[in-house]
Every structure is written in C-alpha cells, then in structure tokens.
Amino acid sequence: MRFLSQKSLRTAALLSLLATAGAAQAHTGHGTSSLFEGLTHPLGADHLLAMVAVGLWSATALPAGKVWQGPATFMLALVASATLGMLGLSVPFLEPLIALSVVLFGALLVMSPLQVPATLGLGLVAAAASLHGLAHGAEAPVSGFATYAVGFLLTTAVLHATGAAAGLGLRRYLARQSDWLLATAGGLLGGAGLVMAASL
To answer: What tens digit of pLDDT does each residue of 88-120 get?
Structure first.
C-alpha cells in the first residue's frame, strides 16, 4: 500500500462518502412487502454507512474473538425495536436521529484507539440500532413484513461483515497507520451524517 499516499486515500474516502451521502433516501416512499425490497433498503446512505461502521468498529475496538458482538447487538436491537415500532412505539424526530446515528458511529471510530469500554460501545450500537428498527417497524404493512424483514436483515449482515473484514484487514496489514485511518474514516462518516441530518 506504499504506492497510495495518505492524501490520496483521504481524497478517495471523501469522494466515496460524498457520493453515497448524495444517494440518501428517507424511510418512507418505498415498498416494504417483498424480499427484494428488504434486500435493497439498507443500501440507502444512512443504513449503509451505519452498518458498515458497526462492523469496522467491532473489528478494531473489540477483542479478536468478540468481533461478532457488535453486529449481533445491532441486529438483535434492530429486530426488537422493529417489533415495538409495529406496535406503535415511536420517538419524535426519528429521521434526523437516524442520520445522527451515523455521526455517533463516526465518533466511535475516532475514539476506537482510546479503547472505549466494550459495554459502552455496544450500548451505543444497540441504541442506534433501535432507532433504525423503530423506523422499519413504523413502515410495516399489514402483511408481508416478515419477508421484507428477512431481506433487510440479510443485507444488514453482509454490510456488517464488509465492515468487519475491512477492520480486520486494517489490523493485520495497516496496523501502524490504523489510528489515523480510523480517525479519518470517523471524521468523514460524522460529516456525512451531519449532511444527511441537515437535509431532512
């Protein structure tokens, strides 16, 4: 990776995040009853960035044998809160809060070299996942939600795995540069989350 300068890596990351942020989509206005709709829904910028960040944080902040805990925590909280959302539970300003959850994950990445206690990090992951789950539950149709839920859970798992793979690669091949790479990624992630929140 010596042929890539720090400046070029930062520039590439910034451009990709800006492009993704431009593709942000709200939770309303899309179908929620088919497997395909469930598979594609997490590819909206707020979900995609948050879920990849969970995997990346888990691989860089948790012990090697416990990387799975971050994604598992997110998915369990997602399902539980989606159920509550189906039952009518909601919170005000949900969409901006979901965008701000991306900022939260950016902050976690910036702080990962400081060894934030795992319980605190996992608690924040669960809180952010609950916001995403409430939105999923609120948009649930009368029928067909189970199929849709299977779809978004599968894509969520793939996005978590993608982030975790990137984090494990960072640990193994770029250990010396990992602190500034995580700080840069976290800063860009936080910036993208603020842009999304401001646009709602």
So the answer is: 898 999 999 999 999 999 999 999 878 889 999
Nearest to 139 by CA among 52, 37, 51, 43: 37
List the structure tokens of 160.
Answer: 């978590």
Q: Is residue 52 part of a domain?
A: yes
Please report whether residue 131 resides in a domain: yes
- What is the per-residue pLDDT across 145-168, written as a single tens digit (0 to 9) for each? 788 888 889 999 999 999 999 999
Residues spanned by the domain of 122? 46-198
How much of the chain is in helix, strand and coil states, percent to nearest 5? 80, 0, 20
Asked if residue 6 belongs to a domain, the reply is no
Tell me which H or E stretch contains 1.
Answer: none
Number of structural domains, the chain? 1
Q: CA angle, corner 147, sides to 72 and 154, nearest 5?
A: 35
**Rounded CA gap, 55 and 69, in Å?**
10
